[in-house]
Specification:
Layout lengths: L1 E4 L6 E4 L1 E3 L5 E4 L7 E3 L5 E3 L7 E2 L6 E2 L16 H10 L3 E16 L2 E10 L4 E7 L3 H15 L12 H6 L9 E5 L6
Antiparallel strand pairs: 1-2, 3-4, 5-6, 7-8, 9-10, 9-12, 10-11
Length: about 190
């Protein structure tokens, strides 16, 4: 077991996880904070911070990864297996069973970027590139890549440049599947 502090309420959660020999947290498998709040009337409420979650496509609320309905708007959440089956039926989609990923950083006239390449067991690959120049681009990168791929959710990955992310690549995990859509001649 490992101890992970909630970034929302500060509660010391105990989850299954992995640490290095010196006790540095490498990965944890917690889903929701186990902390509780109590108001002046004695009413208790559990902290709603989620370490692992799936977003509602309707309202973007964070839901438990096993939830069938959104806790905010009550929209039916699509099962990831059903989404994968639907993607396999599409003619313009490439579905990779991801066995690894690599990161590469660079710089051009538009600024700094980070390229992530996902690989399957057969050697096929697909990549995506994130620009990291503006605050909006950096926020999008945090939300679309860092948050779902971190091995230690709730513990911020400290970075300033793309090289900082490369140095911490061991703290990131590859997805199980990647679904890429054809845009022009590129995936």
């Amino acid at each position: 077991p490992v101890q992970v502090f909630c970034p929302a309420c500060g509660f010391a959660n105990t989850f299954w996880g992995k640490t290095t020999a010196d006790g540095t947290l490498i990965e944890h498998f917690g889903r929701r904070c186990q902390g509780w709040f109590e108001d002046d009337d004695g009413h208790r409420e559990q902290c709603d911070f989620r370490f692992r979650f799936k977003n509602c496509p309707q309202c973007n609320a964070e839901n438990d990864i096993a939830a069938r309905r959104c806790r905010e708007c009550d929209t039916v959440l699509v099962d990831p297996d059903d989404m994968l089956k639907a993607a396999l039926r599409l003619k313009d989609a490439l579905v990779l069973r991801c066995s690894g990923m690599s990161l590469q950083h660079g710089h051009d006239e538009k600024g700094e970027w980070l390229k992530i390449t996902y690989y399957d067991e057969d050697g096929a690959d697909v990549s995506e590139r994130f620009r990291l120049q503006t605050p909006a681009q950096r926020t999008a990168f945090e939300q679309l890549f860092i948050r779902p791929h971190t091995r230690t959710p709730g513990i911020p990955l400290r970075w300033i440049t793309a090289a900082d992310i490369l140095a911490q690549q061991a703290l990131l995990r590859h997805p199980d599947f990647v679904v890429a859509r054809m845009k022009g001649q590129y995936w």
